[in-house]
Amino acid sequence: MKVILVNGSPHKNGCTHRALAEVATMLDAHGIESEIFWIGAKPAAGCMACGRCRETGACIFDDAVNEFRARAEQADGFVFGAPVHYAHAASSLMGFMDRLFYSNGKAGAPDVLSFKPAAAIASARRAGTTAALDDMQKFFTISNMPIVSSRYWNMVHGCTPEEVEQDQEGLWTMRQLGRNMAWLLKSLEAGREAGIGLPDREAGSFTSFIR
Known about the structure:
Elements: E1 2-7, H1 15-29, E2 33-38, H2 53-56, H3 64-72, E3 77-85, E4 88-89, H4 91-103, E5 118-124, H5 129-141, E6 155-157, H6 161-166, H7 168-193
Parallel strand pairs: 1-2, 1-3, 3-5, 5-6
Antiparallel strand pairs: 3-4
C-alpha cells in the first residue's frame, strides 16, 4: 500500500514539508509506503473550464497535475498539505486541486481518486488554518473520498521548519494522522479480502437552482 503526500507549498523544504514528513514517518513505521510530491514553485493556474479534459482525459496544462495523476493511479491514499496565505489555503495548491479533481476520470481515463482515503493538513504562522482545511476537504467530499482525521485539527504552526519542531502538539497530531491513515488503509484491505466491494453508483442528475 502507498500514500502520496502532496506538498502544496512553494517552499520545497519548508513548514508544510516538515509536517508531511512527520506523517510519512508514521506511515512507514506501519508498513505503508509513502512519497512526498512537491507541486513546484511556479504559479499553478486554476481550471479555465475549457472542457478539453473531457476529450483527452488530461488537463490542457501539461504540468504537475498530469504528472501527479499518473502516479496517483498506483496510490491507495493521499495527504494534501498547504501553507496558509491570507487566511486560506495557498492558491497554488487550490489551482492544482481544481484541475486535478475536475479532469480526473474524464474521457475514459482512470478515476484515480474515488474511494481512496484522503487527509488535509495546514501550516500557518498563526491563524487561518481551519479555513484552509475546509478549502481542501471540500474536494474530498465531492469525490467519494473518506476523510482521515486525527486527535486535533491537522495543523502545525511556525514560520520555519525549526519553529515547527517546537510545535509538539502539531507534530503529535501529524503522527496520529499517520497512524489513522495506516489503520484505515489496512481496514479497507481487510474488507476487500473479505469480499466487500465498492458501493453501487447511481446515475445522478445535474441541475441548477433555477429549475
